[in-house]
Amino acid sequence: MQQAIYRILDANLDRAREGLRIIEEWCRFGLNNPSLAEECKKMRQELAVLHTWEIRQARDTPSDVGTELSHPREETRDSIESLLQANLARIQEALRVLEEYGKLCLPEMGGVCKSLRYRVYTLESHLLNSDRHKKLYRSSLYLVTSSSENLLAIVDDALRGGLTLVQYRDKSTDDNIRLVKAQQLCKLCHDYGALLLVNDRVDLALAVDADGVHLGQQDIPIALAKEILGNHKIVGRSTTNPDEMQNAIAEGADYIGVGPVYKTPTKPGKEPAGLEYIEYAAQNCPIPWFAIGGVNLTNINYVVAAGGQRVAVVRSIMESEQPSVTVRQFLGCLG
């Protein structure tokens, strides 16, 4: 019995590692994306640790009745997307097999492979999901709005400056007014080809067909937000430390906020995470992340030097006399 289980584990460890290598090569040479390539490499290495000598010794290729099995759809690939989809599915299926059969004799394998499977889902969303996710990945500047009588005019001017990502954040206005503002902002952003996310309120995001939602640590689970909005929508999560970051990644967040970098009135009473957290994110976060909290044109160079490639701002744009100019200045700093 154990010999048969080890053969199953061996075959699926090979299958998952091979599939990850295929995805890694595209991330490295096709997309020139070091963070995604590195994530694939890390997952391959984690599986390699599980692929022990005892498991390898169970291999018996000559007597494997499945070596001759094939299907016409496996013989051709119509596009790079179909190639990626096939191999991502292959990895996910293999990890599920490892998760279940590993429980019979190697309990730690089940937990590791479950975590890896969720990470592959996240990888899949970045590689294959809609234009929304591609726009998210290309966005280096993220405007989080605050209450203002001139909200639409400010956002309009910022969009003319090249802004591509906006979050509607308003925690005090009546829902009826918020609904109207969200509708107006959604149309405005889409007219410019930009994304609109809604802070906290999944119901508002759904009602106005926004591009997604941003959740705080105390908000609903990411999986529930995706179930309500659909996997084609974006779900982000605020994080303030490495543990919260890793939890958000494991839950399937499409991006995270990293901060607050500096003390900010937007988060009263919240101690800043500092540049150390930025440095940690730069080394360990495989998904898009935005440095947030007190970032302005005076200190952004420190954020960039610490490894920040994307920033989210509130006051610097919302209180600017010329939002479009400010946006262009930020984009210039971010390259």
TrEMBL record:
Q: Pfam families under this entry?
A: ThiD2, TMP-TENI
Chain segments carrying region Unknown: 1-119
Q: Where is the stretch described as Thiamine-phosphate synthase?
A: 120-335
* Residues annotated to bind Mg(2+): 200, 219
| Claim: Metal-binding is one of the keywords in the record | yes
Q: Which Gene3D superfamilies does the protein's record reference?
A: Aldolase class I
Known PANTHER family for this protein? THIAMINE-PHOSPHATE PYROPHOSPHORYLASE, THIAMINE-PHOSPHATE SYNTHASE
Q: Which gene encodes it?
A: thiE
| Domain called Thiamine phosphate synthase/TenI: residue spans | 141-317
Query: Which organism does this sequence originate in?
Result: Hyella patelloides LEGE 07179
Pathway of this protein? Cofactor biosynthesis; thiamine diphosphate biosynthesis; thiamine phosphate from 4-amino-2-methyl-5-diphosphomethylpyrimidine and 4-methyl-5-(2-phosphoethyl)-thiazole: step 1/1
Q: Where is the ThiD2 domain?
A: 7-125
For this entry, the protein name equals Thiamine-phosphate synthase
Annotated keywords: Magnesium, Metal-binding, Thiamine biosynthesis, Transferase
> Do the record's keywords include Magnesium?
yes
Catalysed reactions, as listed in the record: 4-methyl-5-(2-phosphooxyethyl)-thiazole + 4-amino-2-methyl-5-(diphosphooxymethyl)pyrimidine + H(+) = thiamine phosphate + diphosphate; 2-(2-carboxy-4-methylthiazol-5-yl)ethyl phosphate + 4-amino-2-methyl-5-(diphosphooxymethyl)pyrimidine + 2 H(+) = thiamine phosphate + CO2 + diphosphate; 2-[(2R,5Z)-2-carboxy-4-methylthiazol-5(2H)-ylidene]ethyl phosphate + 4-amino-2-methyl-5-(diphosphooxymethyl)pyrimidine + 2 H(+) = thiamine phosphate + CO2 + diphosphate
GO biological process terms, semicolon-separated: thiamine biosynthetic process; thiamine diphosphate biosynthetic process
Function, as annotated, reads:
Condenses 4-methyl-5-(beta-hydroxyethyl)thiazole monophosphate (THZ-P) and 2-methyl-4-amino-5-hydroxymethyl pyrimidine pyrophosphate (HMP-PP) to form thiamine monophosphate (TMP).
Q: What cellular component GO annotations does this protein have? A: cytoplasm
Q: What is its EC number?
A: 2.5.1.3
The entry sums up its family as follows: Belongs to the thiamine-phosphate synthase family.
* Top EC category: transferase
InterPro entries attached to this UniProt entry: Aldolase_TIM, ThiamineP_synth_sf, ThiamineP_synth_TenI, ThiD2, TMP_synthase, TMP_synthase_cyanobac_bac
Q: Where does 2-[(2R,5Z)-2-carboxy-4-methylthiazol-5(2H)-ylidene]ethyl phosphate bind?
A: 264-266, 294
Residues recorded as binding 4-amino-2-methyl-5-(diphosphooxymethyl)pyrimidine, renumbered to this chain, are 167-171, 199, 238, 267
| Names of required cofactors | Mg(2+)
- GO MF entries: magnesium ion binding; thiamine-phosphate diphosphorylase activity
